[in-house]
Amino acid sequence: QDNSFEQFIINYCNEKLQQIFIELTLKEEQEEYIREGIEWTHIEYFNNAIICDLIENNQTGILAMLDEECLRPGTVTDDTFLEKLNQVCATHQHFESRMSKCSRFLNDTSLPHSCFRIQHYAGKVMYQVEGFVDKNNDLLYRDLSQAMWKANHSLIKALFPEGNPAKINLKRPPTAGSQFKASVATLMKNLQTKNPNYIRCIKPNDKKAAHIFNEALVCHQIRYLGLLENVRVRRAGYAFRQLYEPCLERYKMLCKQTWPHWRGPARAGVEVLFNELGIPEEEFSFGRSKIFIRNPRTLFKLEDLRKQRLEDLATLIEKIYRGWKCRTRFLLMKKCQVVIASWYRRYA
């Protein structure tokens, strides 16, 4: 219920993770259709870049203004920090404050004078400004670092490398918000180089009990996880896409013309395969390098046909093997019978 600086930076990290989720799923989804030349109706979705900018902008962001308050001379309090927010962020559509110049919040009695509210992608969160300045300073004095570095214990000495006289830095130590912002930037840069897979976990109830399903709680999680936008984009587009070569390799046994080997371009082979199976044209589209399947039922049908075909092929292989084995045994028995008969006639 009471959110302070710690929850603020945690929610900032969540915003950045949501932003990269949007970049790597929803945005990439629509850009792929453009790259592949697929006819596509653009779906609007909420991009939380505006919220991230509100927090991390180098000039007008909340973290930048907090650092400015911590570093400027004169009397600095949490109230002066809130006053600065009211001046700079007053007109921002995702920022609310009781003393904001935006008159629609002046009569909002649910918002105390010492608080501000941010409309995050997951919903509105109210923050108490008390302690923001002190927690953001989080200073480790230079003489303390030097004293700890002179300790005889190797672990303590390793924990305070900034106390090394050879590495003395006369600059003011970075604030907690700046350090966290740099860490988040490093995390985002690392994630951008990966190919992440997202697993969204839904908590059915707060009691951690079985057979209890809280519909309101589940709907709330679906909204703030951004699943609705993802589902809208997926349903409007194509549920499955795959390169022509692996697609042909997986389903080629379903068509006599492509089995066991297809001589020609992979795309032509996939076209022959889908035409032979009688799949409606509205259920798939051919991109520059991939086949796009609109409905999951079509994919399930292909998998069922493939499963049945594999069983038929397994039966065929088993039948041929059993026939070969029985014929080999029969020929061996026939050969033995001829040998036995010839020797019997010789001594008869």
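(the above was protein one; protein two follows)
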Amino acid sequence: MQFLCKEYQDGNPRVRSLVTDTRIHLVPSLNPDGYELAREAGSELGNWALGHWTEEGYDLFENFPDLASALWAAEERKLVPHKFPNHHIPIPEHYLAEDATVAVETRAIMAWMDKNPFVLGANLQGGEKLVSYPFDTARPVSETPAAAPRSPDDYEDDHPELQETPDHAIFRWLAISYASAHLTMTETFRGGCHTQDMTNAMGIVQGAKWHPRAGSMNDFSYLHTNCLELSIYLGCDKFPHESELQQEWENNKESLLTFMEQVHRGIKGVVTDQQGEPIANATIIVGGINHNIKTASGGDYWRILNPGEYRVSARAEGYNPSVKTCSVFYDIGATQCNFVLSRSNWKRIREIMAMNGNRPIRRIVPGRPMTPRERMRLRLRL
């Protein structure tokens, strides 16, 4: 925060561009109670567990709804996307109940996510030095009859399968953008901070491969909102001394700037009707990526994508869909890709069908006299 404010006031063109063109939200501490406990113990006496849980005993990072398992269960039953969405999956009702085992901090963050149309996010943690991306949840081994028989001697049989997100390539790009700009994150020749290197010397890893867990903030953010979120572990020492903080800042400074700039990669635009009025909650579909997003209240949207050419369509209730080709380039700066949707008659047709009991409406043949029953039905419909 201090760096952005000072450099902006000093006229740093890079920071001025970032602050001017980006809506930046910063949360200093997600778990202030746990942090207080850890801070009082200090670096030598502190440990992973001490500041990990809230005062009420919740692990916030695993306290979110497990939407990934719900999505995979629907996929097994062939319900996606016709009866079960592949995006903006609703929060289960039992999770929203007042007596649900949900931390007050978790509820606050979920409400915050619903209020703001976030595009890119990161939660900053310590005790390791890598970037972790979704899915954090490991998919249970399929038990369908079509599944291939497994050998009892196969070690992988005892472990769930890794499931990549539809945006796997984009998540890897975002993770690499941070790790490659870090001064030491990709220097894994000595192994990881505590065990062997899990990142193949790249400084990035899929969460389910490294530390599988259900109900993570990253998975929830991806499946419930438009936001692509990652976990960034800033350094091996979870509680560095004050004298070490300056070097830790230097290690991460360029990475933080580079990562935030990635929000301007991909496509963006506005979806409107033919009168120029914005259409909220329109669905943006990118061909080849089975994960859609929705427009915000002003009809605007942002979609982070890797460089390439994409077939993009916009759909909304009561409107005819629109399709166009949008190109994403290597330079930072999202490609403008707007849509104008014309009104559809299908909404009115469905209303008339519902009035008729969803039975086919008999066509009136010109020149043939109507029966009294047909005349009565026509009068009722009109």
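Reviewer note on protein two: Residues 267-356 form a domain with the Immunoglobulin-like fold (CATH 2.60.40.1120).
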